[in-house]
Amino acid sequence: MGIPKPKQTKKTQTNQIKMKSIKMKSIRKIKLIDNEIIKFMNENKNERNPYIKASKEIKEFTTKQIRQRWISKLDPLLSHEDLCENEKLYIIEWVEKYKNKHPSNVINWKQLIADLKIKSGKMRSEIKVKNYYYLKERQKRALPSKVDVSPQDNNVPKSVPSSPQDNNVSTTVSPSSKDYNNNVQERQVSEMMKIRNLIN
To answer: What is the 8-class DSSP label of residue 83?
Structure first.
């Protein structure tokens, strides 16, 4: 026996119907705009920066939005299927090698995508590659380190004190500003993904 659903008033039912109607209208409108973008890009693909011209003709989106829509979804050269295991391994290995050579922590995603296309024969969007890599990074950070051992006592891990009360060790951990910035960025990416899912 499940939990009974709360009764909906006519007002909430009407609001839900309006929201569905608005969503359907916006989906249709975005599809029309997508078709305009595709048509324009196919006609002007040899231009130096076709996105500026496109934004003058397609008033609903800015130059940046048109470019992002084209390179992440509409470009016919893109492969939209899931990454295969070889591609996933290649992305992780490539980024690790790149970070070792360039300790600035700025990853050249365009170069990775070009190398991945040569390796696998499939063109991937920057968003798909970045999302996969950062997902794996978050998963890796979430797992506790097995090699985190203190130099004084090799049997006791650093992160777990023998008794917090005896050692006057605080059990609360305050996030660093770097963690806070990462969390803010993750939330922003999450919000963008929700918007994209509504659009797609």
So the answer is: P
